[in-house]
Design a protein that fits this description.
The protein is of the alpha/beta class. It has helices at residues 14-22, 40-49, 64-71, 91-99, 119-131, 164-171, 179-187, 209-216; strands at residues 3-9, 34-35, 38-39, 55-60, 80-83, 106-111, 138-142, 148-149, 160-163, 191-195. A hairpin with a 2-residue loop joins strand 2 and strand 3 (38-39).
């Protein structure tokens, strides 16, 4: 099974910027805030690169120059960076652009602000796909509510592992968040399997400054 990692890092960072301004602290993209002696996005990339994947693609958009200046030299031999054009697009378009730049059959799809999701959890998600009866009609996802075979896709998002071509069919011509698309895939008969987190922090994305402080604690 060939598998690539797609990491989306193209967002507006609006909630974090608003928090930083209200707190009268330096305005800085959340993805390059310090985290475990690296940055948030570097920790996410390193955890993904350590999983059982063949390559890693990072999709940039808003603030791409700021992000690339902070981290690009550290990954020039291990990560491919691509740019959304135009930049003002939804998460589904960022993911579609990433999937369009790989040849693997499957993709581990992650957001750049998920530094606490461990390599072990990524590998568990991949293992589900390797062992299931029909991986081309299966989505392996970090659970939000239940674990195991799921009876709904409500509330689900990245990280997940999906068959590349089938995922692209649902993303094409969409410009939205991912949950409505995942719900449609569920309604169309895809099997969703929820993988249990290694610890509670794996379930927290960094949207607000308080989220960042909580993960640092």
């Amino acid at each position: 099974m060939s598998i690539s990692t797609i990491i989306t890092a193209a967002g507006k960072n609006s909630r974090m910027r608003k928090d930083q301004i209200s707190l009268n602290i330096e305005v800085k993209n959340k993805l390059i805030l310090p985290f475990e002696n690296k940055t948030v996005i570097e920790t996410t990339i390193d955890n993904a690169l350590s999983a059982n994947v063949d390559e890693c693609i990072v999709v940039l958009g808003h603030y791409s120059s700021e992000i690339k200046e902070a981290i690009c030299d550290n990954y020039k031999d291990s990560v491919k960076f691509i740019q959304n054009n135009p930049v003002d697009v939804g998460l589904s378009t960022s993911l579609f652009n990433g999937l369009s730049n790989i040849d693997s059959d499957f993709a581990l799809c992650v957001t750049g602000d998920q530094p606490t999701v461990s390599t072990d959890t990524f590998n568990k998600m991949i293992s589900v796909m390797e062992k299931c009866d029909n991986p081309y009609k299966t989505i392996s996802v970090l659970r939000r509510r239940k674990t195991g075979f799921l009876d709904t896709a409500e509330g689900l998002g990245m990280p997940f592992v999906a068959p590349r071509l089938n995922m692209m069919k649902y993303l094409e011509n969409e410009d939205d968040n991912l949950n409505p698309i995942l719900r449609k895939m569920f309604d169309d008969g895809f099997t969703f399997y929820g993988v249990k987190e290694k610890n509670k922090k794996e379930l927290l994305n960094i949207n607000h400054y308080d989220d960042y402080l909580q993960l640092l604690d």
